[in-house]
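To whoever is on call:

I kicked off a structure prediction for a single chain this morning and the downstream step that reads the tokens threw a length-mismatch warning. I double-checked the sequence; it's 171 residues and nothing unusual in it as far as I can see. Pasting both halves so you can look.
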Amino acid sequence: MRDSPSATTALLERRSDTRSAAGPGAPVPPTLIFLAGLGAGWGLEGAIPSVEGAGLVPLLSGWILSAVGVVLFVWGVATFGKAGTGIMLQQAATEVVARGPYRWSRNPQYVAFILMYAGVSLITGLMWALLLLPVAIAGVDRLVISREERYLKATFGSAYGQYCARVSRWF
């Protein structure tokens, strides 16, 4: 059974209206929080050097973590793209995405950032940055994720609540 032109137009208009509405927003972009952690670690490393050289095991581990982070990030972005919903904090979400990496984590993009951050810290030998990673995670949690979760709960209600009951925040 085909939708009538007016029903299709109404659906497209409704979806367009939803997409143009603002998303959860954030006072600070999450990428900036992670970059600030790396930058602070780099600054501390210059002031109080931690170790000489990264060594082979941390170097290889860093590359593996970074590669897994990049793959997870791209997979998450592609999943949101296929769903046709907003991934940027200024874009409205049009559905609760529960496929791809979102089957296992409500925040695979942030898990990807954590993996890349840890990998870059190991590759570059920035042990201070690695020690500051929990501070960056706490900043993202308080400034971004808590806002996203309030927005999603207000937007999708029980559908989001059911998703949260099934899927862990991290992994």
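Update from on-call: the warning came from a stale cache, not from the record. Cleared it. Sanity check on the structure: Residues 1-20 have pLDDT under 50 and may be disordered.
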